[in-house]
Protein 1
Amino acid sequence: MSKLSDEQFQAYLKQIRELAEGPFDEMQKEIEVTNKFPQEFYDLAIKNDLYRFALPEKYGGFGLTEKQILMVQEEFSRGPGGMRMHLHHAADLDWRILDDFGSDELKAQYMDKFQDKTVYSNFALTEKTGGTGADVHTTAIKDGDYYVINGEKTLISHTDCSDFTYLIVSTDPTSDKDSRLSAFFVDVHTPGYEIVPMPHMMGCRGAGHAGLRFTNMRVHKKFLLGKEGMGLEIAMHSLAVSRAHIAVSNLGMAQRMLEMTIKRAKDRVTFGKPLIKRQAIQQTIADMGTEIHALRLMIYDFAEDYEAGRDIEMKAAMCKLHSINTVKTVSDAMLEIFGGIGYFEDCEYGPTERLYRDCRAMWLEEGPRTVQRLTAFRGLEKNGGVISYKDNGYRTV
């Protein structure tokens, strides 16, 4: 049960929306240039419980349901994309991997430190020299009580503010089996750990993207997550949940873009008539809203399955796939209806230009559409095309 009453939870959602569209939006103007979050951002995130709201109660969190966590994320996703990346991670991968796969010793030492950003992590899977998934070339070779790690990772978020890295490596590099991979919880101050700078991104500025290089980095066996050979399982399970969180990020952005578009269409008059009165505009707005409505229900259905402990990999991939299509449809329509004014910074209706850039990162986070389709296909093939839903109890249709 949540520690918050329904009334308190609704007030918290309002509080986070006002934060995202107020102070966060304002400070993003500087971040667009510096590509770095000011300390004020972290202070406000802590003050507004954005590092602890998703944590279980036993670690100092609110004890929210998965649906409630996703609802909070929809609200802060209305703000700047880089901050959304940071806070999305804080609500999910940041602590969940350690909670799911860490030893009792590691959890006792670190889990309650996530609530105020005393500990913050990043997740390192992607490499330049291969894809993701099982195609990992960074190696960890056993040497007594330690593993010696060598290799590189690329496109890693939050490298500038992390204390630990969830690192996926190959502990059996000669094998072609899925069990060749393992996962570690690595202190970023370990000798041999190096951050490699990368250029600024198109959008989502401030999220600390960089490469990582490991040179004879020695990591004690106590930092192994799960068991040796579980790396792919850990990565895929963690990404499945995160994909639904990516989907709700797209939902938050799309919802704000729809609201701004309707306001603009009411105000903009051409040939004596507001745009909102033209059937072509009405049909476009209807399409935007329909995509958003369908996405929100898909995400809530995912949350029901997650809470019930059911397999969520297929539906999480579907959520992310549909969310990319939704935010593409909505952002393109927004810009078309706004016209030239929407292409400029500091638009009076809101950050149309920035949202348009920020949402493009969602094509890539936790895998592009091609990967989501393959994951969804595997589930559909396994189930013979049958998709189950909650409807007066759990049933199969």
Protein 2
Amino acid sequence: MTEEDRTGLDAGRLQAPLARLLRPLVRLAIRSGLTFPALVDLLRELYVNVAENDFALTSKSQTDSRVSLLTGIHRKEVSRLRGAGAPVNVVPVSISRTSRILARWLADSDFSDGAGRPRPLPRTGSDVEPSFDRLVESVTRDVRPRVVLDEWLDRGLVTRDADDRILLAEQAFIPKSGSDQQLYYLGRNLHDHIAAAVANVEGERPRFLERAVHYDGLTRPIAEMLEQRSREIAMEALTTANREAHTATEGVADGGWRWNFGVYVYSERVGGDNDGPAGQDEGEGTK
């Protein structure tokens, strides 16, 4: 039995969901000035890279002819593109550092309360007292806490209160629109969501939890109320997961695995000019 027979996959049935999936990304590409020929060049390189690495036979070396057969790309183009490599999955240093400091501020009992709310922190303190300097130094000593503080004040991630304590701002969780940080998470989070869904489609049984609650035919006030309430529920879930992950990894040596837990909320006016995915339809639904 072939993989196609087992999963029922074929190119024709895939086109409709793939077109819906790609539509908002095409809109983003056009808005940002990424032209169709440039996107085709990117897809051509990715096709060759995925075929070369993910579809290699264990008993035989991968050849230009087989990659060409799998992808439909001319063998001369395959020969030129092989070995070019796919985009490297490396977290930018500034994003990694910021994420780790924020995660500790929200999870470590020295810097947060029992509900996962970040405590206001004095900038400096003793070695046993919670402070912003101690928070930063508990994560990294590659950059001075004052440098981090100045950067975060400039970006609006933190503020100072009347007692000169450092407060974590709510917008710290929301990267600036169009920023390098937001674009990084666009690629990472969408990749992981899509990868989980694809793994479930390809496998004999769902491997990852990938579900959604969806309701249609709503009035605008109800849709807005549900959107706000779902944001609150999502933040509670993320805060809980962060605390438990922090506790589980504290003092444990690094390993070769990574984990990502994410949520999304989406609503739109049906029947208008919206052409983004109706987020209610992703994965499994509940009503």
Protein 3
Amino acid sequence: MTHRGDILCIGSVLWDVIGRAPRRMGIGHDVPGRIERLPGGVAMNIAAACRREGLRPILLTVLGRDAEGRALADACAAMGLVTDHVTWADDLRTDRYMAIEAENGLVAAVADAHSLEEAGARILAPLRDGAIASEAQPWRGLVALDGNLTEPLLAEIAASPLFAAADLRVAPASPGKAARLAPLLPHARATVYVNRVEAALICGEAFDSAEAAARALVARGARRVLVTDGGAAMAEARADGTLVSLAPPAVSVCRVTGAGDCFMASHIAAEVAGLDGAAALEEALAATALYVSTA
């Protein structure tokens, strides 16, 4: 059994098509700007950020056996991500994400992650067949889990012996998919990363601060949660009653897509490096501030 990696990144790996305009935008606006295509997806973004922090991520995802899929795999491999265990599908096309960002933040986005949803548990085969792990020898390291997976598959993972020994780090793909994470909240080894809006959707109530949202998620059975709130203070809460709240550095925001993934990966890397509590949060907030303020 060989895996050559420090963390499994499970979920969406796709092409991001991002349009950015250096002015405020609203519905129906048509303005000049820049459009770029780059590797994206929650699992890929977390993996790339982990790689920048010195970790060796393994991708578990699905790619279509098409030109876009081959080019995406090559791009990921060039970043130093392990693509040996990607599921290749002849019957599915490579997923895509399209977003418009402006001075006032994310204007709109469409995520076409249907192939990941249709592939379902097929992407977990390397954890069963001995390529990475097996039921007899489950993975005992870090796992970054992407909320783009279907609700039934996330529920299956929550109860699966394949993940019982893992250090499970969970992120929603978007506010619209945040409720899918509910089965993972009480997992004995799960840390859940959400923003205040996503926390509200999971709990079915609004919160006026990240601290209130974090407390509510723990009250619903979460072992450990980290709740961000844009430029306002974020909070980490644990089932043992520990709560830490910190404000992020004030910066000019140039981009927002991938910011949450950057925060999660930077926090994971900080803890791998031996930091804990407020020190790990400060490291992650600083890395995220640099990310969003760099065009």
Protein 4
Amino acid sequence: MRDAVIVEAVRTPIGKGKPGGTLASVHPVELLARTLDALVRRSGVDPELVDDVIGGCVDQVGEQAMNTTRYAWLSAGFPESVPATTVDRQCGSSQQAVHFAAQGVISGAYDLVVACGVESMSRVPMWSNVPPGTDPFGPGVAARYPEGLVPQGVSAELISAKWSISRERMDAFATTSHQRAARAHADGLFAAELVPVRTDAGEVTTDETVRPGTTPEVLAGLRPSFADPALAERFPQIDWSVTAGNSSPLSDGASAVLIASGETAARLGLRPLARLHSFAVTGSDPLLMLTGVIPATEKVLRRAGLRLEDIDLFEVNEAFASVVLAWQQETGADPAKVNVNGGAISLGHPLGASGTRLMTTLVNAMRQRGARYALQTMCEAGGLANATVLEAL
């Protein structure tokens, strides 16, 4: 069987996903195009050799419609002969793009492929693809779940209640995320992965949402974001402790990785950063929605033939603090190995870009810390999750 290896990985800084954010003036196609351009330039490969470009994007409407990945490739000035497609597995879209790309390499369908993602939540707000008055679920889902499904924030509250995770623990976790991200920036740990983005207001070189001065006391003053009287009656166990401070912010950003077969990397003189060792996807309860990271972790470790203790670093997407804390309780993972350079609560969560953003940060952290094995997992809307094991080479 052929190996699939990551030979380059880049990301933009992440901006606030609202008007006035540092990247809000940049069209999402252009944001991804600049990322792809940096990926190809840094790797030194001839773009004509790329077999496919697979990109993740969640709200595929408006400026993110019409196969955004294809037009980003063309906007970057690369060959028209190279195809591209855009996939949606919700927050795990670009991690799924990595899976598809690597599986294509392992099977022999590809020799060299780009996996990437983009989301401009300032220009294409969440739920833009569901116009008012429309039903994206249909009558069969309504019949199967007659009491109704709930928004992700309420799912995060249900997780907090089920695993007895206090507001104080979530705020402490969020504070640690900001501290780690601020320290990583100060120590230059993101330098190898960041692609500066030029805007009308100047060049953006750093993540906008990191708040070094965050403390548990500051976060304790924030109001719950998802409190709802009707849902409080339905779910009396919820104490409404999920806030903007212990959740990921709306974000803009793009990221990309270049994946090759081991033979192709050797032939082109490319240095592998990590081998894509094992993959797993899973479904879970769509009411809790965000707990799929727990069975996905178990499944990918089983497929990899590894134990939790074998993993040196973890990236678990910080959509909400309660998700990562519940995952830690169930798996027993060492918190010191999880999101060591901060996570989405501090760095941001540009939906379709987050999978390859986490992977870009993870492969660099592996090199910086001498890690052999690393595991990445993402919770996803609808009760889904991806998990990937990387091995250093």
